[in-house]
Amino acid sequence: MVPQPREELFTVLVVDDHPLLREAIAGRLRSMGAGTVHEAASVTEARARAHAAGPCDLAILDLTLPDGSGLDLVSELRSLGWNRLVVLASSDDPYAVRSAFQAGAQAYLLKSASPSVVTDGVKRVLDGGVYADPTVAPLLATGSRVPGTDNTPRELSAREVEVLQLVADGQSNKEIGEALNLSALTVKSHLSRIGRKLGTGDRAQMVALAMRAGVIR
Question: Over the stretch 147-158, which tens digit does the pLDDT of each residue have?
Fold first, then answer.
């Protein structure tokens, strides 16, 4: 039998100035279904590839590049219609992580992460989700502040963070209540307060805002 060509699931741009790391990332992405993998070693090369190829399904970028900031590149690609941006960096500094999400990234992974963590993060982003490396997620959760609709930081209580994390995990109000030993009415009350603080009553938007701010994983 003639083997059938493998279906191309997604296209990707990998931006890093270390050739061996780029090759390793590209290989893992191909094993996950990536067909066309564009590579760039600098901001300049990435811009050229981006303009030539148009938005890919995914981009994986380092923050420290020889000719500029990866954060600026994240913002630029986002403005050009790239909707799935993953930062793969060396720094586990919470400020760097928050800055990446604020610039428009959907995931922050560490170069020291295991292949399974990288795969999980990429899959989450390809599915339209947001992901923070498990190593940095606890550091982010210590600062439970999210931007309010009036540009004033709003503080979420520890209990509200717990409730929102369970919402992000896909649990219903009843399941959240059982997990936290709360009534369904109390869970609903917590979600109402969270909604007021975040300026939205939509569960998906609540989760997205909190993930972007690094409050939940």
Answer: 544 433 357 888
